[in-house]
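Subject: sequence -> C-alpha cells, single chain

Hey, anyone have a minute? Need the predicted structure for the following. Not urgent.
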Amino acid sequence: MKETLFNETLIACEFGSLVFSVAELTDWARSKRIVIPTIHNLDCSKFIQVEYLLSAIQSVSHRLTESEALLIVEADEQLKADSNSKLAPNFAIGAQVSDKWRALIKAGIDSDELRLLSFGTKLPIDAEAKDENSNPEIDIAALATRTELINAFGKFTGMDKTWFLHLADTPKLKTARKFKGKSGRHCVGPLFCPYEVMQWLIDPKRRKGVMLSNTTGWKILRNKFPKTYDAKSIGDPTDY
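Reply:
Had a minute. Here:
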C-alpha cells in the first residue's frame, strides 16, 4: 500500500501539498451518497493530495471516446452553449467535472465535514498552523509565496517545487516560513520571508542547489521584493 497518492507538479495549484485522509474522504462521500469518479483505487493508500484527487477526477473524461464525449456535450446545456466544447469535448467535460468537484470539496471544508491535512505531519492544517498564523506582527504583504520565490531565485539556484516538500530537511527554509497557510473558503498557501530565504541561498555552507552570489542575491531581493528590501537595505553590502 502506498501511503500517499501525490504529484509534486500540482503543488502550485490551489491546495498545494495538502492532503485528505482517504478514510475520512470516503466516509464523507458515503454520507453524501455520492461516488467519487476516479480511475484510481483509493483504498490502496492512506492519504491523497487534494489536487491529485481533483486531477484524477478530471482525467476520467479522457477515457471517453470522442463520439461519447460529443453526445454528453450535446445533452448538457452549459457545455453545448460553449462552441469550444465541440472542438475539445473530453477536455470540456473534464474541466466542468473538476470545477464542480472543487466547489463540492470546498463546501465540505468550509462546513468542517472534510479536514485538510499537512503533507508532512498528516495533522489538520488549522491545528498545526494555529500558533504560527496567530502572530499579529507578521506583515503578510512583505512575504512571498513558493511560486514567487521559485520565479525569483529558481533559475539561479535550481530551486523548484520539490524544495518545499520536506521543510524539516531544510531548517533555514522552514524558519523563513512565517505563515503556514489557511484552509477554508479562502484557502492560501504558506508564505515566506524573502530576506531570510535570500540569506540562506547566499550562505556558502548551503548544500542544496546551486550557489547564489551575494551580489545576485541582494539584486534579486531589491528587484523582486522591494518592500522587504526597503526594510533590510541597510544590510546590503552591494549598495554603494
